[in-house]
Design goal:
Helix content: over 70%
Number of helices: 5
Largest sheet: none
Radius of gyration: 12 Å
Number of strands: 0
Shape: globular
Length: 96
């Protein structure tokens, strides 16, 4: 898993303050935080990022590159983690 320094800073800030800044505007940051949260079993952050990405998909704010990353991730982790809707939204962007 590769994450940028920006994502690491955001992750560290969340760990110590439970607040987010960059994930609100940047879908790639939100995806990478979702990936890290899943890896480190941080259910609160994982749920927040999943909801944020679902909302961004509904509003049409997610580009094809992030959609491909999200779809690949949801297929890798499987259905047991509540990622079905997120994967479906990502797939709909990919096929359009």
């Amino acid at each position: 898993m590769f994450v940028s320094e920006k994502v690491l800073d955001e992750f560290e800030k969340y760990v110590y303050t439970s607040t987010l800044e960059n994930a609100k505007q940047d879908q790639l940051v939100a995806f990478q935080l979702l990936e890290m949260a899943h890896f480190y079993n941080m259910d609160g952050l994982e749920g927040t990022m999943r909801k944020k990405l679902l909302a961004a998909f509904r509003r049409g704010l997610v580009d094809i590159d992030v959609s491909l990353l999200v779809y690949s991730f949801t297929k890798k982790v499987g259905v047991g983690f509540g990622f079905v809707k997120l994967g479906e939204r990502a797939f709909s962007i990919i096929k359009s």
